[in-house]
Amino acid sequence: MSGDPILEVDNLAMRFGGIVAVNGLSFAARHGEITALIGPNGAGKTTVFNCITGFYKPTGGTIRLSHRDGKSYQLQRLNDFRISKIAKVARTFQNIRLFPGMTALENLMVAQHNALMRASGLTFLGLIGAPSWRSAEASAIELARIWLKRIGLLERADDAAGNLPYGDQRRLEIARAMCTTPALLCLDEPAAGLNARESAGLSELLMSIRAEGNTSILLIEHDMSVVMEISDHVVVLDYGVKIADGTPQHVRDDARVIAAYLGVEDDEVAAVEQELGL
Amino acid sequence: MAPLTPAPAAAATAAAAKKRGLDVAFIFKKSLISALVALVLFSLMIGVRTEAGPTGQLIYWTRFGDLAAMVGAVFAGSIVVELLRWWWGPVGTVHSVGPKVQGALSFAGRVLPPLMLGFTFLMPVIFYDQRYILDLGILVLTYVMLGWGLNVVVGLAGLLDLGYVAFYAVGAYSYALLATNFGLSFWVCLPLAGILAAFWGVLLGFPVLRLRGDYLAIVTLAFGEIIRLVIINWQSLTGGPNGISGIPRPTMFGIPLTPAEDGLAARLGIEFSPTHRIVFLFYLILALALLTNWVTIRLRRLPIGRAWEALREDEVACRALGINTTTTKLTAFATGAMFGGFAGAFFATRQGFISPESFTFQESALVLAIVVLGGMGSQLGVALAAVAMIGGFELFRGLDQYRMLVFGLAMVLLMIWRPRGLIGHRAPTVFLEQSRAISSDLVKEGR
Amino acid sequence: MDYFAQQLINGIVLGSIYGLIAIGYTMVYGIVGMINFAHGDVFMIGGFIALISFLILVSLGLTFVPVILLIVLLVSMAITALYGWTVERIAYRPLRHSFRLAPMLSAIGMSFVLMNYSQVAQGARVKPVPPIITGGYTLYEADGFVVRLSNIQIIVVITTVVLLAIFTWLVAKTRLGRDMRACEQDQTMAALLGVDVDRTISMTFVIGAALASVAGMMYLLYYGLVDFFMGFVAGIKAFTAAVLGGIGSLPGAMLGGLLIGLIETLWSAYFSVEYKDVAAFSILIIVLIFLPTGLLGRPEVEKV
């Protein structure tokens, strides 16, 4: 099954007034893989994310998400919460967006809202404390506990999310996204602000998610050590256009990518390549 | 005018305090400036009194004595405030609370609700002969219920609602109209009033879904005013400014509380007393308030309640988690409105007469003040705040014309004293090991 | 048509008054991000002070109307501005960096204080004054219907336009205006660059209150009465105007004021007087459904 595309972005365009943030972007991410979206600051990566997760309505193009059971969704036609609810795309944010006044456990419970809402009979069964609701609640707490354990925050389950150290908040946000049982997990700079040890832990976590095989990952990341270590596939953006697409090794050696990161014009690329001994 | 704090006494305190680093000259200068500002502010408004004379022509007379007294009061008050400030330490000083005190507080937090509840249950027994206290109790409980209802919208979902009184009005008029026109009983009308109010809650909810903060505030305010104005002007239905009178009193599940032969007193073979009805009303509003409280506490532990709180914390994150923010907001509005509607129906049956005067913006502000002063989202805080506000309001009944002045000042001072309300923490809805209160500094206020 | 023209004139005059009040709301909102609920009552205080100073001047024997008006205007502006300053100092400054709802409630509390204060100080009854400025022009007469433009209407509109011009100049060209705009963008940064933030915010309240006092005086001259409750209704409508125009935007406040004034007048003229406020509020709600940030407000881009 691995190898079929889960996400196919075709000719995606996003304009804000006169500013073209993304233009004619096409790429695909495959089931069971970690796909990285990289590029210099302002390349339009987060805009792509916001289009995929429904926070922006793309100006043009299509985004198609296919589940393993063959169901597929045109994400640009679904609006905001349905992308997460129906198409099962979860995301994290560049600047962490936890519910700071709620405990770590509560954060993970909120993430299971839709499942719990059904179990609570749209609140009415829950209000009278029906046994079916109680068991659903217990298993939701169990799922949260499993995730808290996986991210090493079991001891801090009952602490306010806003009180957790930065690195813990990053992992909690990933756990929260995972509690929606997503098919595709979109991570916006998950390693930003983490130290080397925390980054390594993050890589491990992401690889363990991949190993389970139920969730594919799309990530934006600046930390190249993380990208190169865990990605199966890398897409490089610059000025809203795709400039490279392939394995980490392939991308690392691409002249245009180097130029984009070093900020030189195309005709200087040859010179740069020579300098770098490529 | 209020008796002045004798200036010599203040000066003596100041002199005694000087050796502890008190800058008397500074305080004196500051108070003098305050007095000067007061002089300008009050010069025309208090120094001169206008009134329409017998011929309709405006006349005026001066009141320099009052003016001098007021300016003097400001001077003295300003000295007192400065001294207090000096004694209390600089603004923003953290008065840290030791673990012992914290333990005592949490103990009080656990013991207080059952004590309050027990006392409330016994009130009609203790104060059986004191109708005034029972009436006041009913009034306080009505506001406790309104506060708990609005708490769902403002405290949990973080949606600012300045027009809550509209739902109170809808509930009251629903009952009044259904009962007087169709002769429906209170027990049939009560759920209907709640449903109608919830319907209006959803109706208001729709247009304001996309609005934020102050836009939301003004639209809800406008909505409250629209409802009130329609009630005033739709005379054929609502009786306009004259209101609706002769609203049936509630029956105890069909048994009227009257001296009639089929009345409760006659059936029980006891002597009739009008207090029976008061006691019944007391327990009725207590039951309604407790129902509100029970449902709210239950809802907080259900996904919908958690979604409300999550919405208050971060709406964008909610959407990313697949939560339908539209229905979540609408249910918050509807639930809050429904409780307001219940309270309104109770108000109508208790008064026997309603008019638009009871549903002004001032009521909305009062209920909102109760919620915010209570500490947003805290059920206990709201109850305490309702007791303090309505009780305090009642204490100043003697001052009649100064009541709103005192109330307004109290609102300003209480907000400065405790911007986050009396109960400064949030209790988690679920825990693994131990429920740890969350400081309200972390809790967001919504929009 | 003639009837319409007359209503149009009336609406513009009323709208000018609303606009002047709305500017105070919009300025304060722009700079401290809160609704100054007491602003409507500051407007009411302005009306009262104009009334009292007018009475005193007349009883002192002054008869030359322009001089009276000028003195009344200055006295009313000065004292009302001090009210604005005091309100900010007492009720808002201690809550400057507090949670959003606390200043809103203390503002509502302040509104109650001012309302009750003038009720206690000046009595609850409506204070009528005889028309001070009389006369006017008949624009044209057709089918027995006279379209009139009264002197007072001219004065209201001219005063509004002049004040707007001065105010626009103040915001655009002066040091104070620059400080105000800086504080609006980023208070911390402004303070780092040497802007006295406290003073700038105080001045914002002072200017807003001064404009409101002019509105109060115009209201007194135009309608010939003041009462302690007038601040509430006028305040809500002016705030509605500010929101309608897009809160934070000065031209928006004026535009919103004119629109609310026109809606109210035309609705009263063609439909029903009783429901004029309902119409104004309903239009507010309808506009906000389609333009959540008002007519001229900056659209809010949700940063994710």
Automatic annotation (TrEMBL), chain A:
CC annotations in GO: plasma membrane
Xref: CDD domains: ABC_Mj1267_LivG_branched
Example GO biological process: L-valine import across plasma membrane
Keywords assigned by UniProt, alphabetized: Amino-acid transport, ATP-binding, Nucleotide-binding, Transport
GO MF annotation terms: ATP binding; ATP hydrolysis activity; L-isoleucine transmembrane transporter activity; L-phenylalanine transmembrane transporter activity; L-valine transmembrane transporter activity
Domain ABC transporter: start-end pairs: 7-264
Homology family: Belongs to the ABC transporter superfamily.
PANTHER family hit by this protein: CONSERVED COMPONENT OF ABC TRANSPORTER FOR NATURAL AMINO ACIDS-RELATED, HIGH-AFFINITY BRANCHED-CHAIN AMINO ACID TRANSPORT ATP-BINDING PROTEIN LIVG
Function: Involved in beta-(1-->2)glucan export. Transmembrane domains (TMD) form a pore in the inner membrane and the ATP-binding domain (NBD) is responsible for energy generation.
Protein name: Branched-chain amino acid transport system ATP-binding protein
Automatic annotation (TrEMBL), chain B:
ATP-binding as UniProt keyword: no
Originating organism: Rhodopseudomonas rhenobacensis
Protein name (database record): Branched-chain amino acid transport system permease protein
Entries under NCBIfam families matching the protein: PRK11301.1
GO terms of molecular function: branched-chain amino acid transmembrane transporter activity
Compartments where found: Cell membrane
Signal peptide start-end: none
Membrane topology type: Multi-pass membrane protein
A GO cellular component entry from the record: plasma membrane
Record key words, sorted: Cell membrane, Membrane, Transmembrane, Transmembrane helix
CDD domains: TM_PBP1_LivM_like (cd06581)
Residues passing through the membrane, by range: 26-46, 67-87, 107-128, 140-170, 182-203, 215-234, 278-297, 365-390, 402-417
UniProt-listed Pfam families: BPD_transp_2, DUF3382
Domain High-affinity branched-chain amino acid transport system permease LivHM N-terminal stretches: 27-121
Native organism taxonomy: Bacteria, Pseudomonadati, Pseudomonadota, Alphaproteobacteria, Hyphomicrobiales
TrEMBL record, chain C:
GO biological process: D-alanine transmembrane transport; L-alanine transport; L-isoleucine import across plasma membrane
Lineage top rank: taxon: Bacteria
One GO MF term: L-isoleucine transmembrane transporter activity
Keywords for the protein's UniProt record, in alphabetical order: Amino-acid transport, Cell inner membrane, Cell membrane, Membrane, Transmembrane, Transmembrane helix, Transport
InterPro entries, alphabetized: ABC_transp_permease (IPR001851), BCAA_transport_permease (IPR052157)
Main location per the UniProt record: membrane
Parts of the chain that traverse the membrane: 12-35, 42-62, 68-87, 99-118, 152-172, 201-222, 279-297
Subcellular location: Cell membrane
Family classification: Belongs to the binding-protein-dependent transport system permease family. LivHM subfamily.
Protein name in the entry: Branched-chain amino acid transport system permease protein
Species for this entry: Rhodopseudomonas rhenobacensis
